[in-house]
Give the backbone structure.
Amino acid sequence: MFFRQYPTKDSTLSYFFGCGTLAKSVAVDVVAGDEPWFIEEARKANVKITHVIDTHVHADHVSGGRNLAQVAGAPYYLHESNRGNVRFDFLPLTDGQVLDVGNVKVRVLHTPGHTPDSVCLLVTDLRRGEAPWFVVTGDTLFVGTVGRPDLLGREAEMAAQLHDALHAKLLSLPDEIEIFPGHQAGSACGVGLSGKPSSTLGFEKRWNPLLSKGREEFVAAVREVPPKPPEMERMLRVNRGLAA
């Protein structure tokens, strides 16, 4: 298995990983303008880009996912709840679905809360073992904090969903699972993000102050958020295919 974490603008973290043996790969949360980097990394790894995934419809940057998918001749994936929410075709992701990336298997975990369509990607490398190795958490779980729940204006409802998704889908996983989030310090997508771009679930369970809170206390805490990202509405319209 090969794995690349790509720090890009606005403190966003993108990912490119896959199976070199069977020449398959997946690109996750591509930022517009970064498509050539993924094409070059695929060339160097001698693999085909077979899956392009956005963990949710982003509000802080313009996605390059659809463009990369078109250039690479790969399908573009979003969670199934985006049917009717976007004006373009995509392959729907469903909770529990497993994507075949050669010797790498990617299980989709639907984790609503930051947005209704948020997903995390639980990754297993069969050459290493049958147990999951790491999870790409998008804007659901960061190092030191969690995603903001207020982007739709339903803070309490979404915060409660986020609490439930974290406990049902992520915190039940083994402590040794590594986490790779969608942002690091400097992003407006959460409060208190660490500058460290990865962690483990065990470390976060012990030291992330939000993960030990009960539901009511959690909801109150995560509703304290920074200003919304600049040009959020424009970026959402672009990412939904409603504007150029």
Observations:
- Helices lie at 35-45, 65-72, 155-170, 201-207, 215-222, 232-239.
- DSSP finds six helices and twelve strands in the chain.
- The domain at 2-226 is CATH 3.60.15.10 (Metallo-beta-lactamase; Chain A).
